[in-house]
Structures
1.
Amino acid sequence: DVLIEAEEAYLAHQTQRFEILCQDLRRSGRAGLRLEAALLESRLWFDVNEYARAIAVLTDACALVPEDPRPGSGLSRLALATGNVEHAMRLAAKAVKIDSSDLSSVCSSALAQLEADPRRALEAWRIANALAPDERTIAGFLCSVALAQGKHEEGLVLLERVGQYQSQTSPLSEHPGLLALTRAALQTDSGA
């Protein structure tokens, strides 16, 4: 219940209330609740560019529940956000090793690979897409990477499938990956 209150405070941008609720949650006797509070709190610090605070919270969470890949995945994204691609790759690989079916970890790995070696990113985004085949953001990354590697047919097949699960927030036709992929495929098909 306090976790729900904290999430509501986060969504309402009530930072002070949110921070107090998270501190209460992190003192809980239940490790799972403390972990969820830490993950939520790290999102706030990431959103407001307080990376040092987000890193501290996630580092504590890694020690608290080392068998959960999500804190390491978050640390990987923070490393990537601060330009430390090699560290992001190591953290993401460790998170994926803990649980190769954790979508957050697989996406962190794909994002880091996209920065480090875009050729390897295609396979990582394929894995993420297999875990969440109707997720537009993942499909967009996969399409963009496929386009960059000249795999237009793969991207078009993917987009047709994902189009069946149109997002409630915006139509898939507004997705920049779709537009770029479609243009490239049309140019290729017309012999341009």
2.
Amino acid sequence: NYNSNKIMNSNRGRYKFNRPLVLLMKKGGVIMKRLFTILLFLVSILSLQIVAYAADDATLNVTGTVSEENKTITVVIGIDSPTPFCGCSFNLNYDSEILKFESLENGSVIENATVITNENYDKNIIRVVCASARELPQSGKVITVTFTYDTNENKEVAFQIEDCKIAGVNGEKIAFSVNNASVNIPSDAKNDS
């Protein structure tokens, strides 16, 4: 009789505390499965949107204009990005044998960003780095660079963007294409004779 009471009491104690836990685990398991399924569904939907953003390429456009009167070339670098971005960096390559750097002006796209430019980055390179804690305008002028030239010969001068990176608002890399430019410096007809 003593042994049967001991076993009954020990079983009662075990079920008394474990039974709600077992029921909770069974119910919690169903709830956890449902939450996991919903979470997995949301992650798959969000990843589809990220892939859709990544498919759109930004475009950097380089244009150049010659002023024969002032013997200057003005180079404008613009951006058109369907994807929101908050920073970019690039090198502008030019021919320092023909051109002399004069000035650099920030454009409307980066006017509210932190901008670091280095005109002496290398012999033929101007380095531009900009970053912002907020989204930058998705299209417009990034920088305007002015060069002078001292030649009377007909020369073609190229301007190329290299080592470019564009960062999205969440730090992701944004794919891009570049339209580089070349400018023709006309010969001075008065000095050719």
3.
Amino acid sequence: CALVTGVQTCALPICFPVTITTLFPVTIAKVLRGFLSLEYKNNARDNAWPYGNFVNYVKVLVPMGSKLTNAKIIDQTSGNEVSIFNNTLRSTESFYQTFETSVTIEPQKTKILIFEYDLPDNLTILKNKNTSYSLLWQKQAGDESIFNFQFTPIYGFEGMNPISNYNVVEKEGDFTVSSRFTGNLKFELELK
């Protein structure tokens, strides 16, 4: 339910997230809540050209009608956390809602960009009705980040028959995929 695109403004080196984590827990109101975490690391020793600060523009495409509930950047080096909720551009592109911002990673720093959002009502999970969940997460060209995807069904639902082109691990009712990006992630699951 999220497609991430990013542009590195510095010619070299290209800075893709080193770790991407998504979680889709379901609220008590049976609304799917998206959590997307993008971890960036700048290994440059100093600001000497062509390195220095990495400035990444990030655009997240989610289903139309999704509502952003939180956006922040965490500096892993200092522990500082900055809300960017009010500075996150919300727009539409074709049939998608977008959340857009930039993140600057200074040399020898690691920053985590986090978006939290509720998916639209038409994607709620209805009790007493067999339903399915599917996700297509498109790999960005050149990106070989490590990603973590987790789907947690709401209490009272059971996930069954997961289908994915990556290895899916089920543990205590949660379904996870952790791997290095080698191609698009396809994930489907029946909910009963």
